[in-house]
Please model this.
Amino acid sequence: MKPKSAVVMTEHCMDPTVHLFPTEIPPITGDHMPPIIIKSSIDKELQEGDLDKVECNIPCEQEKGSVFGDGDYFIDGESWKITHGKNVKIERTDFMKDHFYSTQSLMSSVPLTNFDIKIHSLRNRPAIDFDTAKEKAIYLVNSDCSASSTKRNRWYDGVTGKIKVDSYAHCGHNIEVPEGMSISTPEGRIALMKQYRIVLAFDDTTSNDHISSMVWEAFVSGAVPVVVGADNIRDRLPHNSFINVKDYQKWDDLASYVEKVVKDKELWNSYHKWRDDDKILSALEATYEFSQTDPTCRLCRWAYAKKYGLGWDHTKQVVRSIPKIPKDKFCTTADNGLVSKPFSEHWVTKSAGGSEKVLEEDSEGESCSSLVADGDTVKAHRKVVQHDGVTDFIITESKNENTDTEIILRLKFPGVRNPDGACFYNTHTLVPTTRGAKVSSASIQDNVVKVTIIADWETSVRSTGEGIMELVIQKGSDESMEEDSPPKRIRIIIEDISPIHDKMTEYLASSFAKLMIKDFVDPVGIFFVDS
Model:
């Protein structure tokens, strides 16, 4: 070899040795879990004495003296930014830049809520006695009386024009708090609300999923709340459990209806039927079950799952016990050697007329890492490896003597529901690359999981049914691959999908997918240089 010259060792592509992430899945319980550290600046170097421990089932530490309040936060050792704030506007494409959110929106990576199960549990909370309760409304807003986004002062003025309203706080103040009572604690406010038929729960924002503690306290008290609040509040609270201001175009129309409810016992009682419906209560509890855990701990849980490629239950805000790519039971048995987890592998031939034939498989060695799929006139030899949260197939040989037949690798992903079929895209629109245009790719996804398949040659990738992806390894007209031919490579990327991203992830790659696509289309070359 001449000085300063180099060669790329093709065979190294068949035996990935470079790992971008830990090769061992860390435990999700026990004493040997690596800690997650939350800090206020991405470049800040923290020592052990700079950290406070956070009570959590995941080893969780945060910068000493810091409070998980409004602002941006970072995970030590990662580039992720988490913006924390009650009503921060979420940009749905920010996941592409490793920017995530912790807000009142239930679509946030780490959602916040005013619901406190210890105070706001709605089980065994009967309605107050209509006959003994005051034929009035109560109002307990203490600041930002006008609230430009909701104009709650105008709604308040409208209601007071029709019925009597006792306002104990600063806004509209017209009565003093009775001796021995308080409006500075949830318990005190609930006790006071129990004396009234109506609670005016007028919030200062219409942000999705934002429900003030005043609304929850009104439910606990047994009164009927009149709510100014989240645009999607109908989706979050029991049907016919509150009077929604959004149902009225004019202040007077709302006031007239509230006047009717406060005087009509039968109508008032109709707003309490949900209290004895176990199905409604169970659904509400499931939605806000995560509130039992402090948001700082939930941030650590989320970061732990993301950092180590583990599954994440967004609704419950807990790490899943099964990782995205299970390391055990990768293959069924050494006898057939087919991949069975987290997808099932099938080799078939398909003729131009549509008839199919399943190829016989023969595992080489004691695992499914090497397998030969054989037929009368076709043959395919592949290797498979898992690394860095992805699965790679390396096709080292394929022969097809039938000009009207395709050799197909069919992968089935149980549980994935993609009724709209697959999304096809050019990999080069997702990541910069030095390779030519002959890269094939497609993805399927539902609201939980996304599967992306990439091949490093020009071929057909398609979805023939829900949870099914097919890739044409060789057409009959293609030249056969011999053992000494350059291998064909396939990469399968499986990701959890956050509800906030909706269908955007169908067209836009996450930072993890970009990294693994970049690694695939521009793999690390190993050079030997004679200087």
